[in-house]
């Protein structure tokens, strides 16, 4: 591989969204030869056919153990691959495991060429995790909104309050009991269900 | 005050003692607040143990040795203060391969010598007919499954690197791969062989105890530096495990143990399948044939939990035989010191009385194993990547 050529990168990930985010990041950084594998069947033979320089795999993927076979000499594996095993890069390995990704590097690729790929990979994986986290929070916030609206309706009906008054009542109760307004609303729903 | 510990495991039946120690409160009684983390690959378990995300782990015994020797990966010294299980694997073959082998067999079908010879004839016929080589699934390059398959077939002249294909498959994918014909056979721990038989797509050909009478399978692994900094925590962990094993070995507790292990966040398979493993009474064919062995999986009986450095030496000899490790006195010594009967015995206050933990590997072929002459031992085997210097 010449110095100018972009290394060929394979992403093994069953999550198409995360793979797309990573692929886009790598392309923006000038790594043009990126291929995504989402199908785990015959993973090794597909990798050998593509002949990549770097393989990136997410840690939720049980097929990671399949890649470990690439270090062995056997009939199934004709060209052993060495991993990124530089002892001095413990910090890099730690950061990637924590981000949930692992990199397998074919022997011969220089360390300074791997570093930016790995760094990008770690930051994209972390960004994806953050995105998922935000999505989950938005979802639960929406759920909470629905619960509060229903509790408001119950209070308006039972106590003859306006919408604003119902809300103020719930909020002041929450403050007094040091609870979240969502929890108070949920108690109102539960109570009204029992007292029906 | 209790000590928080994070321990990784793979959902296999030989993680049982660890799970029981935690879920039955034996660990808590020793002042340990253990969080068990279910993992999806041995690579993850190894890496998370190595970098300190796990304090301890349910680990393939050969991975502990490979990590300590720095084979194929970062060198991190690991020690094993106890065994989580001996034996426990089975070789399962597709109905097609089973029929072909039974047509060729010249002896008892549970005799590994006879089945290996039958396999050699099937392999020869396929080669003559120009058929694709048979494919065998196993769980990891540094695994007992890999060495057990190789030892068995090589005894009858089948070269595992030339005559067949050996491929790594994650245990949860084994059964589907056998059903789809992606592999013709596999060697794996419980419960996966039983699941293949229940689905009617596999025959259990051998319990590994047919091949090796006593083979260490999984250990509790910790980093050596961690063990030196936390000797009391380690001893507490050994004691908690000891109580768990004592509980599991009582037949009246088997049903409760099976129900604990069956929980989705633990092993997550049917209680009945787990129960069969502990009872050593397995359905081996889709037609309902069963077979019993008190040695199918050992977790407490027969001193199974006590680490035996001779077992580590045997595993190292397999790494040398199959070209994974160079042969050296230093490496042998390093491999043997991964297994720590001294820590096990000290924790249980039983002194150094590990005089007769095993006596033997009990392999069905080749000379009796001697840790002090690995070179002489390996010379006895015709097939292998290691060759004696001329």
Describe the structure.
The complex is a heterodimer of chains A (196) and B (390). With 196 residues, chain A is α/β, with parallel strands linked by helices. Chain A has helices at residues 16-28, 43-50, 64-68, 90-99, 111-159, 163-176, 181-194; strands at residues 9-12, 34-37, 54-58, 101-105. Chain A has two domains: 9-134, D-Maltodextrin-Binding Protein, domain 2 (3-Layer(aba) Sandwich), CATH 3.40.190; 138-194, Arc Repressor Mutant, subunit A (Orthogonal Bundle), CATH 1.10.10.10. Helices cover 58% and strands 9% of the residues of chain A. Chain A is elongated, with a radius of gyration of 26 Å. The interface between A and B is medium-sized, with 30 and 33 residues.
Descriptive tags:
heterodimer, A: 196 residues, alpha/beta, D-Maltodextrin-Binding Protein, domain 2, Arc Repressor Mutant, subunit A, 2 domains, 4-stranded mixed β-sheet, 7 helices, 58% helix, elongated, B: 390 residues, 13 strands, globular
Secondary structure elements and their pairing?
The complex is a heterodimer of chains A (196) and B (390).
Chain A: E1 9-12, H1 16-28, E2 34-37, H2 43-50, E3 54-58, H3 64-68, H4 90-99, E4 101-105, H5 111-159, H6 163-176, H7 181-194
Parallel strand pairs in A: 1-2, 1-3
Antiparallel strand pairs in A: 3-4
Chain B: E1 3-9, H1 16-23, H2 26-29, E2 32-38, H3 42-50, E3 56-60, H4 61-69, E4 78-87, E5 89-93, H5 95-104, H6 112-129, E6 135-138, H7 144-154, E7 165-168, H8 171-180, E8 185-189, H9 192-198, E9 203-207, E10 216-223, H10 224-229, H11 231-248, H12 254-262, H13 271-279, E11 281-283, E12 290-292, E13 297-298, H14 309-321, H15 329-336, H16 341-347, H17 374-379
Helix pairs in contact in B: 1-11, 4-15, 5-6, 8-9, 11-16, 12-13, 14-15
């Amino acid at each position: 591989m010449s110095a100018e050529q972009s290394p060929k990168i394979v992403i093994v990930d069953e999550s198409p969204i995360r793979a797309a985010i990573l692929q886009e990041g790598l392309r923006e950084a000038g790594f043009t030869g990126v291929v995504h594998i989402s199908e785990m069947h015959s993973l090794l033979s597909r990798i050998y056919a593509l002949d990549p320089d770097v393989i990136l795999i997410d840690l939720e993927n049980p097929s990671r153990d399949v890649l470990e076979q690439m270090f062995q000499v056997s009939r199934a594996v004709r060209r052993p691959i060495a991993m990124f095993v530089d002892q001095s890069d413990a910090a890099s390995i730690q950061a990637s495991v924590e981000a949930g990704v692992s990199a397998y590097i074919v022997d011969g690729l220089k360390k300074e060429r791997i570093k930016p790929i790995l760094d990008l990979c770690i930051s994209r994986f972390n960004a994806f995790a953050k995105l998922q986290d935000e999505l989950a929070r938005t979802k639960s916030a929406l759920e909470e909104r629905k619960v509060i609206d229903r509790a408001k309706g119950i209070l308006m009906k039972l106590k003859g309050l306006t919408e604003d008054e119902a809300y103020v009542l719930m909020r002041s109760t929450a403050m007094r009991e040091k609870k979240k307004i969502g929890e108070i609303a949920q108690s109102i729903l539960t109570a009204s269900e029992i007292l029906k | 005050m209790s000590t928080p510990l994070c321990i990784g495991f793979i959902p296999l039946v030989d993680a049982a003692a660890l799970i029981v120690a935690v879920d039955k409160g034996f660990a808590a009684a020793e002042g340990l607040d253990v969080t068990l983390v279910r993992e999806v690959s041995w690579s993850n378990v190894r890496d998370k143990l190595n970098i300190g995300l796990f304090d301890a782990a349910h680990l393939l015994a050969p991975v502990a040795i490979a990590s300590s020797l720095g084979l194929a990966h970062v060198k991190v010294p690991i020690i094993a203060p106890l065994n989580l299980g001996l034996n426990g694997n089975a070789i399962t073959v597709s109905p097609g391969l089973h029929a072909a082998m039974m047509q060729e067999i010249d002896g008892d079908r549970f005799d590994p010598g006879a089945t290996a010879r039958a396999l050699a004839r099937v392999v020869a016929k396929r080669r003559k007919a120009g058929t694709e080589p048979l494919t065998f699934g196993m769980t990891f390059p540094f695994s007992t499954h890999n060495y057990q398959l190789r030892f068995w077939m090589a005894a009858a002249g089948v070269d595992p690197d030339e005559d067949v294909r050996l491929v790594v498959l994650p245990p949860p994918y084994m059964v589907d791969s056998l059903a789809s014909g992606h592999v013709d056979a596999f060697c794996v721990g419980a419960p996966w062989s039983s699941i293949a038989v229940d689905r009617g797509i596999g025959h259990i050909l051998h319990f590994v105890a047919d091949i090796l009478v006593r083979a260490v399978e999984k250990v509790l692994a910790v980093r050596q530096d961690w063990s030196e900094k936390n000797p009391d925590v380690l001893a507490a962990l050994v004691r908690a495990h000891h109580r768990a094993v004592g509980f599991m070995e009582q037949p009246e507790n088997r049903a409760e143990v099976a129900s604990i292990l069956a929980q989705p966040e633990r092993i997550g398979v049917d209680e009945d399948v787990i129960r069969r493993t502990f009872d050593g009474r397995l359905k081996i064919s889709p037609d309902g044939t069963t077979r019993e062995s008190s040695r199918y999986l050992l977790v407490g009986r027969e001193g199974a939990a006590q680490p035996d450095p001779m077992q580590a030496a045997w595993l190292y000899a397999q790494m040398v035989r199959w070209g994974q490790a160079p042969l050296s006195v230093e490496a042998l010594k390093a491999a043997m010191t991964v297994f720590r009967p001294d820590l096990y015995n000290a924790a249980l206050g039983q002194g150094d009385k590990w005089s007769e933990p095993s006596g033997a590997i009990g392999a069905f072929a080749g000379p009796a194993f001697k840790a002090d002459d690995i070179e002489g031992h390996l010379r006895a085997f015709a097939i292998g990547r290691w060759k004696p210097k001329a």
